[in-house]
Amino acid sequence: MGFIKKILFLFIALVAFLLVLLAAADNSAQVALKFLEYETPVWPISWWIISAFVVGVVFGNLLNVVSNTRLRMEARRERKTAQGRTQELDLVKAQKQEPLVSPVPAEI
Q1: CB 40 within 8 A of CB 70
Q2: CB-based burial label for 81 (10 Å; 0-12, 13-18, 19+)
Q3: What is the mean pLDDT of residues 22-43?
Q4: Most exposed among 2, 27, 61, 67, judged by the fewest C-beta atoms under 10 Å?
Q5: What is the rounded distance in angstroms from the CA atom of residue 33 to the CA atom of residue 65?
Q6: What's the distance, CA 47 to chain centroid?
């Protein structure tokens, strides 16, 4: 199964590389982006597309890390609470343990 995953990943990576290569070849016009008064350096359109993709991936991963960290901390806190309650329950059960009595009455 691991071999199939590796081959599939390599295939997807190769296809993505070829798509980026085609996008770079087709979008070679030089442009400069302008934000209010700031004008960026002149780059090919393909570079702007690739940089926007990379920024999106990085930003998405950062949000994922923040979200996962918060969820892991919450899960750890809940796990500790559950362990504490389990220990309390075991303690109460040990204190209230009654001698075993047979539920079936003895024959007379």
Answers
A1: no
A2: exposed
A3: 86
A4: 2
A5: 31
A6: 28
Asked if 29 and 42 touch (Cβ cutoff 8 Å), the reply is no
Q: How far apart are CA 75 and CA 82, in angstroms?
A: 10
Q: Which two tokens stand for residue 30?
A: 């030089």
The predicted-structure confidence for 42-99, as pLDDT tens digits, reads as follows 988 888 888 888 899 899 999 999 999 999 999 999 999 999 999 999 888 888 876 5
**Nearest alpha carbon to residue 30 among 48, 17, 13:** 48
Q: Which two tokens stand for residue 35?
A: 């934000």
d(CA 65, CA 57): 12
Given a cut of 70, whether residue 41 has pLDDT beyond it is yes
Pairing of strands 34-35, 38-39: antiparallel
DSSP code for 7: H
